[in-house]
Amino acid sequence: MFEGVIPALITPFDNELKVDFRGIEKNIEFLEKHVDAFVPAGTTGEAATLSYQEHIEVVKYVVEVSKLPVIGGAGSNSTREAVFLAKEVEKAGANAAMLVTPYYNKPNPEGLFIHYKTVAEAISIPIIIYNVPSRTACNISPDVVEKLAEIDNIIGIKEASGNLKQVCEIIRRTPDNFIVLSGDDFLTLPILCLGGNGVISVAANVAPELMKELYSAYKDGNLNKAKEIHYKLLPLYSALFIDTNPIPVKKALELMGMPAGKPRPPLVELSKDKTEKLKEVLKSLGLI
After folding, report:
1. Is 242 part of any domain?
2. Domain of 60, in residue numbers
């Protein structure tokens, strides 16, 4: 249920920066024949500038319109708030909750363990840890992940540390059924080769078919084809991080004629020169 290519969905906004629910549905219709699940209200979904009510409504709406499993974004730097959001994601009908590591207050390993354990005890749906230290200033170590993997409903991790040694240690130390998903598009193939299970992807919003072809080629044992697609996609991976995510991916979808809208402040639209570079990459892949 939680393997393969899983887009980290954008949250499209209208001209007044309100959530465009019809836009969410249109994007899902574009994606769902190629991908394996969805993550709404995560980093790419601008959860940081969604109100709690909007956050919950977005997850609920994706559950309603999607034919695929939904991993609802949750988490907070407050354990109490993380419990609240996780419970609401469960009530919304999500198949799992993805909880970012607590940001800003930088808990120590014991605090991280207690945080996730507390949330796990409060809900019955599975939990996927989300480790993205470049955003949170907090890395969850393999030692802590190993302990958390012993908790029944903590079933996996989205690993976006960019540290392949750390990914290796997590895979080595956790049970075979513990899911390790790449949180960095450019590391999708390397992490699959190490024993990972897929990717929670920004690029899959834009090139779902190519991302699924890469994954399928690897699973079919055709490593040469997987490598070929990996290198074909490499310029897109770079272009989608030419500025802070999700600024470039929203612009890419806009250029493709898909619902996106501007990002909410303090994020701003992609600059003209960066937009031209993004256009070149999209054209080279036949996406526009």
Report:
1. no
2. 4-220
